[in-house]
Amino acid sequence: MSKRKQVSAEEKRIRMLNLFHEKKEFYQLKELEKIAPKEKQIIVQAVKDVVQNLVDDGLVDTDKIGTSVYFWSFPSKTKISKKNALDNAKMQLDEYQKKLNKNLEIIEKEKVGKDVTNERKTLLDKIKDLEEEKLKLDNELKKYQDSNPAEYERMKKSIVVAKEAGNRWTDNVFSVKSWCKRKFFIEDSIIDKQFGIPSDLDYLE
Q1: Contacts 24+ apart (CB under 8 A), 152-155
Q2: Are strands 61-65 and 27-28 parallel, antiparallel or unpaired?
Q3: What are the residue boundaries of the Mnd1 HTH domain, all occurrences included (predicted)?
Q4: Which of 30, 46, 86, 155 is the most exposed place for a label (fewest CB within 10 A)?
Q5: Is 54 helix (H, G, I), strand (E, B) or coil?
């Protein structure tokens, strides 16, 4: 008797996500535990973990209505996740490019006796990686061009994402300032004035 081929964890994720996208309905876990084994060959014992894994990655939405917990995901959910990742990659690419330009300016002024080759190489490598990631995400987005844009309205976390992005770039600014201070012994006030950084720059609450 031949053994049934074992399904990998990633394949289970893909099959479960396809189930949501094909049906475009809302499910309770017990319903998924009945449907997934029959239609997607995912063993019932694995259904809960696979669904939770997709929820943790932001690919499946969940909410409690009364005493019941429902799960759902629409095709545009994946498109939105890809678009957000692309937007973040673009923001990071722009930020690292700005860092590189600023550091090159500082190098021109303070390069006597100071070697920053390693730091520059690190930034250039990071920019290259981000450019490759941007290209990959651009290609991924093309797969979802036919998705309904109205599904964007379902996103409820845009404010949180914007706040996190703002704090992330604020943290990057502080990191660059700290690096400049250690490397070139420049005071905070001079760095702020030279690069137009507000003196009251702080994290968003």
Answers
A1: 152/76, 152/80, 154/61, 154/74, 154/76, 154/77, 155/80
A2: unpaired
A3: 16-75
A4: 30
A5: helix
